[in-house]
């Protein structure tokens, strides 16, 4: 293994040095490194604005790694009549595919029809959806006969099935896109640093926000950083920053949680995704093939309190398993669940606060406080680019910044590659796959597989530390390689292996390694449905965990 890690563009110490040495007033300072904040950083840096972003944990540690991973217009929003949101999201879906084809791809969805009218009703709605996508259409909606449908989705419940509808939407890898957005912004001159928590806003004598106090979570060192415009992009935590600004500020959000169960893909016996258009609580439920597994979700449970590492509720798990019973022949039970992950929705409260969370609009909200703090929240992953454009346009006015128009409509995202990947499992690295292959050639001792169910090698761990700002075992297993999201027990088993590889690369001691393993096991427990079960392999076999 190489002892001397190379200093790279995406090197955290190098970026931190810029904060320590350049006592400049930044044009734009962003709090929060999820889809929203990263999008804003990319928009601002690519317009030539001096840009800094602080994330208290890892990039996409919050909701932005825990979505259903659909780049979509939102069939449900069409049914709700939110035409503007659907038009906008369909256009953004197309731009995501154009600019990050290594991470975004079209996917075929099937809606089974169990009542005579369903296929005609949904078929018509989805033809309108296709038409609304205009030049960004991903495929053509068609009606399917019963026998064709049963061939395409082998485990579908045939009782009373009269056919179905096939339509196309987009699918992506959310945490990988987040890392690639951060890399692209840094390549455009931005300074984006993870594990930096903003504790306080700095104001001038007139009460205008002029910067933040931010602590390096790894060292405890605190910095005062000045900026012409400060942007609050902290997802479900925006109210905390708004209260830092003004303790009497009204609450902006209602937070709701959504869970996903991850199952062996054999539960669908299909490469198509299943869309259940009306669950018993009036929502839609997706069962989507992803990285060789099946993601099923989601739920919508209003919360009164929330945390960065949320936990699934027993009722939510039961709800998903119960719903599947009506649609599948062979039905999964709790012991088949390989991982369960939870995301928190930042839903902007309407004036009428009595409305249920599933009726709250998914539109984004831009708020300017009296202190000129800009808050951007709500929306969807799919619309991150447009949200960023609107926010930076606003920042230019507030900060009287001189720069040109938005550049991101045609800006290729780091890793951009149109060529089909030689190795399917490496496709999400896009053009970076070549660099990983080269690392293995230079260091053949890194070319060993970490786990029999995953093709990743030690080289991908080193790559994530050197070139993707991974700092912890959780960063690697949850958001760089996604194993925690796919099979929590496999990830727990891998934690010591990954901690040791990282420790050698980062020159860390045994205390660090032990602490990392402990921290990861305590996070990963939240991804298990039943901690007493053995390790369930993707093949469906149950294996005892030592
Ligand atoms: C269950 C579920 C499924 C979804 N599925 C989809 C989907 O399929 N497609 C789609 O388009 N959208 C989907 N969404 C919506 C989408 O995921 C969110 O809109 C988006 O991820 C929100 O991103 P964000 O950056 O605003 O928030 P977050 O991702 O939560 O990021 C906020 C960040 O701010 C950081 N932060 C907070 N406080 C501080 C501080 N003091 N200092 C520094 N940093 C701080 C946090 O650590 C966090 O990383 C889904 C949402 C949920 C909940």
Automatic annotation (TrEMBL):
A molecular function (GO) term: glycerol-3-phosphate dehydrogenase (quinone) activity
Classification via PROSITE patterns: FAD_G3PDH_2
Entries under InterPro entries matching the protein: DAO_C, DAO_C_sf, FAD-dep_OxRdtase, FAD/NAD-bd_sf, G3P_DH_FAD-dep
Cofactor or coenzyme needed: FAD
Pfam families xref list: DAO (PF01266), DAO_C (PF16901)
Regions that span the bilayer: none
FAD dependent oxidoreductase domain location: 27-353
Protein's GO biological process: glycerol metabolic process; glycerol-3-phosphate catabolic process
Keywords in alphabetical order: FAD, Flavoprotein, Glycerol metabolism, Oxidoreductase
Domain Alpha-glycerophosphate oxidase C-terminal, residue spans: 423-510
Family according to the record: Belongs to the FAD-dependent glycerol-3-phosphate dehydrogenase family.
Protein name: Glycerol-3-phosphate dehydrogenase
Lineage: Bacteria, Pseudomonadati, Bacteroidota, Flavobacteriia, Flavobacteriales
């Amino acid at each position: 293994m190489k002892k001397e890690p190379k200093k790279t563009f995406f090197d955290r110490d190098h970026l931190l040095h810029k904060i320590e040495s350049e006592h400049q007033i930044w044009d734009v300072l962003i709090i929060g490194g999820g889809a929203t904040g990263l999008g804003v950083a990319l928009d601002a840096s690519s317009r030539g604005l001096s840009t800094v972003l602080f994330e208290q944990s890892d990039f996409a540690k919050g909701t932005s790694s825990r979505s259903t991973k659909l780049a979509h217009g939102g069939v449900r929003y069409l049914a709700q009549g939110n035409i503007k949101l659907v038009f906008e999201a369909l256009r953004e879906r197309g731009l995501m595919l154009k600019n990050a084809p290594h991470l975004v791809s079209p996917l075929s969805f099937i809606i089974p029809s169990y009542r005579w009218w369903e296929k005609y009703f949904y078929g018509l709605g989805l033809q309108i959806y296709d038409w609304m996508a205009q030049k960004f259409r991903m495929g053509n909606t068609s009606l399917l006969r019963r026998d064709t449908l049963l061939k395409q989705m082998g485990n579908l419940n045939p009782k009373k099935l009269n056919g179905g509808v096939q339509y196309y939407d987009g699918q992506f890898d959310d945490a990988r896109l987040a890392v690639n957005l951060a890399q692209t912004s840094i390549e455009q001159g931005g300074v984006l640093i993870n594990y930096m928590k903003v504790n306080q806003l700095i104001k001038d004598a007139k009460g205008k926000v002029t910067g933040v106090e931010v602590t390096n979570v790894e060292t405890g060192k605190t910095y005062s950083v000045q900026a012409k415009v400060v942007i609050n992009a902290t997802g479900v935590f925006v109210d905390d920053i708004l209260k830092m600004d003004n303790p009497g500020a009204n609450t902006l959000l209602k937070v709701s949680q959504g869970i996903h169960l991850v199952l062996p893909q054999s539960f669908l016996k299909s490469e198509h995704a299943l869309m259940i258009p009306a669950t018993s609580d009036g929502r839609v439920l997706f069962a989507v093939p992803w990285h060789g597994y099946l993601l099923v979700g989601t739920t919508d449970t209003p919360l009164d309190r929330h945390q960065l590492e949320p936990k699934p509720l027993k009722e939510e798990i039961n709800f998903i398993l119960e719903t599947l019973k009506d649609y599948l022949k062979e039905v999964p039970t709790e012991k088949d669940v390989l991982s369960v992950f939870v995301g928190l929705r930042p839903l902007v409260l309407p004036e009428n606060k009595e409305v249920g969370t599933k009726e709250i609009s998914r539109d984004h909200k831009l708020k300017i406080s009296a202190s000129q703090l800009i808050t951007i929240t709500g929306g969807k992953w799919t619309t991150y680019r447009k949200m960023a454009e609107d926010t930076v346009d606003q920042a230019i006015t507030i900060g009287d910044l001189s720069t040109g128009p938005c550049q991101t409509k045609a800006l290729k995202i780091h890793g951009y590659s149109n060529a089909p990947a030689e190795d399917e499992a490496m496709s999400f690295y896009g053009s970076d796959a070549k660099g990983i292959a080269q690392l293995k050639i230079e260091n053949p001792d890194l070319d060993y597989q970490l786990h029999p169910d995953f093709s990743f090698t030690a080289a991908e761990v080193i790559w994530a530390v050197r070139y993707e700002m991974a700092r912890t075992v959780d960063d690697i297993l949850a958001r760089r390689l996604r194993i925690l999201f796919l099979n929590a027990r496999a990830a727990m088993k891998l934690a010591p292996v990954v901690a040791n590889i990282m420790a050698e690369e980062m020159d860390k001691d045994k205390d660090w390694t032990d602490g990392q393993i402990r921290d990861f096991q305590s996070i990963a427990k939240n991804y298990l449905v039943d901690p007493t079960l053995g390790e369930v392999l993707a093949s469906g076999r149950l294996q005892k965990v030592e």
